[in-house]
Amino acid sequence: MKKIGTTLALALLSAALSLPGQERFRKSPPPPEPRQELKLPPIETSPLFDNGLRISVVSKDNLPMMSLHLIIFDGESSSPDRSPGTATFAAHMLTRSTQLHSAPELEELIESMGGTLSVSTYQDFTLVAFYFLEEFLNQALELLGQMLLQPKFTEKEIQSVKTVLSLDLMEKEKDPEFVAKRHLIRLLFKKHPYEKLSFSRDAIKTWNQNDLLEFFDQHYRPNNAHLILTGNININNAARKVTRYLGTWQPRKLIAKPFPPIMPLQEANICFIDVPLAKDCAIYLGVQVPFSNDLDPAALSIVSQVLGGTANSRLFMNLRESKGYAYFAFSGAEFYKMGGLFCVWARVTPEFIYPSVQEILNEVRKMSKEPIAASEIDQAKPYLIGNFPVSIERFDAFSGKAAEIIAYNWGDEHWNKYYEQITLVSPEKIFAAAQKCFLQPPLIVVAGDKTRLAARLGEFESIDVYDSKGVKQYNVKKERSPK
After folding, report:
1. Which of 48, 158, 219, 449 could form a disulfide with 74 if both were Cys (CB 3.0 to 4.6 A apart)?
2. Beta carbons of 43 and 71 less than 8 angstroms apart
3. What's the rounded Cα separation, in Å, for the pair 417 and 415?
4. What is the four-CA torsion angle of 100, 103, 109, 113, rounded to 10 degrees?
5. Are 65 and 132 in contact (CB under 8 A)?
6. Number of C-beta neighbours around residue 322 at 10 A
7. What is the topology classification, in CATH, of domain 43-246?
């Protein structure tokens, strides 16, 4: 009886699903739920302190953690010409020891606060990120004050940092993607301050105490810094506490150095750089993002989203899903003080490096010649809008985003009007952004094991070959069959 009842129920269900109304229901998905309003706390900024320091606060209640981000408005492009990488060197030395605490003692103090401390060096700024339990705010500010006002740059610590960074770089140099992008920056910004971000292990050997002290003394100044606190605190309370621990930080007249414009490539170029023992290949295509007041970052975000933002983008669907050449293919933009960098990157199997490069070039050229279809824009905008609150859901991402906005001087609009910026950008602005980037000649870097790829290099019309240190060796041209 139970079996008969079950069979009858299934039959009735099948008949119901075959009704015309049910067919219409299955073909018409329900409308999306209304978008929730994005409610972000304001980024409050105090007036300049007497020493020129500026602080901002992002109040976020009911959290056990706080964050402290210190921005120094000088990055790798400010390193001495004779010693690229000095900005990275100084940033890591900041966290090593002070007049009162050795490196192990600093680590122990930070751990006792339930905290983490990290430093990152970019083209135009350096970022110190300090996370800790809320009750340790005073201790965190005191410790930061010791690092800035009472550093201790001993030869022992200098050699230790140089060794650690050299070993880290040596490990990264096994990754074709890292090598390809570093070489891309080296060639795309040749003889420009932005080239210094691509420093090598040979450059680390030149780092010394004199350059370190000079760089720290010149750039780590309150009138060249911005401090951001995120957590259960208001701007007035923050100003009092910061004054207590950093009020004696002395300013210095900043030296304004002329910053040359970025010179675009005159012609497209393809090069190969050797990564011994690499199993796969990395392809990086790069173009300079021109410095322009009318270039809309929101428009460029949509360009990147359509081209290579997700696994549903043009690049991924072409190179991986359709052709089967690549493991992945993506794109993205980086912004600098004097422009920026737009990259396409893919990891491919060695036998497909030539057709993969051709497909990437075809997709990039298409972006500059044909306006993006309305259907693709309509897919890109909701994704960017929906992904923004997800991307800042974690506390470290939330506070880091606030610091990023201040570091890049994007303004409050990027923080509290992000939805409007994406929604209102027009197809014309999106196409204009694509043309500004992709009408210029691109630079393409292929990275992999030369011994495995020597035969494949001859498929290119012309390709420059570099050794693992980035020194040009020779040029390979495609052989022409006799007529």
Report:
1. 219
2. no
3. 6
4. 130
5. yes
6. 10
7. Cytochrome Bc1 Complex; Chain A, domain 1 (3.30.830)
d(CA 401, CA 409): 12
Q: Give the DSSP letter of residue 65.
A: E
Structure tokens at 220: 């780590």
Task: Decide: 284 and 444 in contact? Cβ < 8 Å.
Answer: yes
Do the beta carbons of residue 128 and residue 117 sit within 8 Å?
A: yes
- In sequence order, which residues have a C-beta less than 8 Å from that of residue 429 and are 6 or more positions away? 296, 299
Report the topology of domain 269-477. Answer: Cytochrome Bc1 Complex; Chain A, domain 1 (3.30.830)
Torsions phi, psi of 345, nearest 5? -140, 145
Cα–Cα distance, 207 to 212 (Å, whole number): 8
Q: Which residues of 129-146 are buried (b: 16+ CB within 10 A; e: fewer)?
A: bbbbbeebbebbbbbbbb
Asked whether the beta carbons of 19 and 9 are under 8 A apart, the reply is: no
Two structure tokens written together for 331: 């794109």
The tens-digit pLDDT sequence of the chain (483 residues) is 444 444 544 444 444 445 455 455 444 545 555 566 677 899 999 998 999 999 999 999 888 999 999 999 999 999 999 999 999 999 999 998 899 999 999 999 999 999 999 999 999 999 999 999 999 999 999 999 999 999 999 999 999 999 999 999 999 999 999 999 999 999 999 999 999 999 999 999 999 999 999 999 999 999 999 999 999 999 999 999 999 999 999 999 998 877 888 888 889 999 999 999 999 999 999 999 887 767 788 999 999 999 999 999 999 999 999 999 999 999 999 988 888 899 999 999 999 999 999 999 999 999 999 999 999 999 999 999 999 999 999 999 999 999 999 998 888 778 888 899 999 999 999 999 999 999 999 999 999 999 999 889 999 999 999 999 999 999 998 876 665
Could you give the CA distance from residue 474 to residue 435 in angstroms, rounded to a whole number? 33
- Fold match flag (43-246 vs 269-477): yes
Residues 6+ apart with CB under 8 A from 409: none
